[in-house]
Amino acid sequence: MSEISIRAARSEDQELLSALLAASYASLKGSYDPHGLDAALPYMSRANPKLLAGGAYYLAAIGGEPAGCGGWSVEKPG
């Protein structure tokens, strides 16, 4: 079994994180209202620089290959 590693994301990871987000949200289209998701997807599928700078966003890798990401903020969206 490959090793899973998790580290804090950095600003230089922004393009990679955005690609991971776009791939994951695109596969979820069938689970959401199409109109709502189409409107939200451009915002949801880009890594937010403020979250990256805040130190509460993470990148997971399996066997050294990027596999997922996620984070949080105490600020309200928008």
Question: What does this molecule look like?
Answer:
Helix content is 40%, strand content 23%. With 78 residues, the chain is α+β, with helices and mostly antiparallel strands. It has a three-stranded antiparallel sheet. It starts with a strand and ends in a 7-residue tail after the last strand. The longest helix is centred in the N-terminal third of the chain and has 14 residues, at 14-27. A hairpin with a 2-residue loop joins strand 2 (57-62) and strand 3. The model has no long low-confidence stretch (mean pLDDT 84). It has one domain (4-71).
Count of helical segments?
3
Mean pLDDT, nearest integer? 84
Number of domains: 1
Give the structural class. Answer: alpha+beta
Largest sheet: 3 strands, antiparallel
Broad shape: globular
The end-to-end distance, rounded to whole angstroms, is 41 Å
Give the ordered list of helices and strands.
Answer: EHHHEE
Beta percentage is 15-25%
Oligomer: single chain
Helix fraction, binned, reads 25-40%
Spans of at least 5 consecutive residues whose pLDDT stays below 50 are: none
Number of strands: 3
Strand order of the largest sheet: 1-2-3
- Tell me the radius of gyration: 13 Å
